[in-house]
């Protein structure tokens, strides 16, 4: 069986070469046109806010930036988890949204966070 396949391939070199070229061309076309997501993002929608407060101790950053920011982010609808981290001169606040569907877009989460931050910013300006 294998011997007949090899003998037939040796007799029809043009056909084998054309098939090889066609297979390579189809592979290159598929490589260029198919969308490829090698590492799918299965995590919930997250919004991370980074703030700078240069020259301040972590406790000052926690009291004046991180705590008000995380409490403001707790009021945003569909919040699953809100965490705040304070370091020397900087602060991170992360909001993880409750993803009811995998198709929940990031844009509504960003808009609601922006509203909360602008309300917080105006409250800080009044001090």
Automatic annotation (TrEMBL):
What are the record's GO terms for cellular component?
A: plasma membrane
Can you name one GO molecular function term for this protein?
Answer: xenobiotic transmembrane transporter activity
SUPFAM superfamilies given in the database record: Multidrug efflux transporter AcrB pore domain, PN1, PN2, PC1 and PC2 subdomains (SSF82693)
Query: What is this protein's name?
Result: Acriflavin resistance protein
């Amino acid at each position: 069986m294998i011997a007949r396949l090899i003998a037939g391939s040796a007799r029809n070199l043009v056909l084998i070469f054309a098939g090889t070229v066609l297979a390579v061309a189809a592979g290159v076309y598929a490589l260029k046109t198919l969308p490829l997501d090698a590492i799918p993002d299965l995590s919930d929608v997250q919004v991370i806010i980074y703030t700078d407060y240069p020259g301040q101790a972590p406790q000052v950053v926690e009291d004046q930036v991180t705590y008000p920011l995380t409490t403001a982010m707790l009021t945003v609808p569909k919040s699953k988890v809100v965490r705040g981290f304070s370091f020397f001169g900087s602060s991170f606040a992360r909001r993880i949204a409750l993803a009811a569907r995998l198709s929940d877009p990031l844009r509504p989460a960003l808009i609601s966070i922006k509203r909360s931050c602008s309300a917080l910013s105006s409250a800080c300006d009044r001090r």
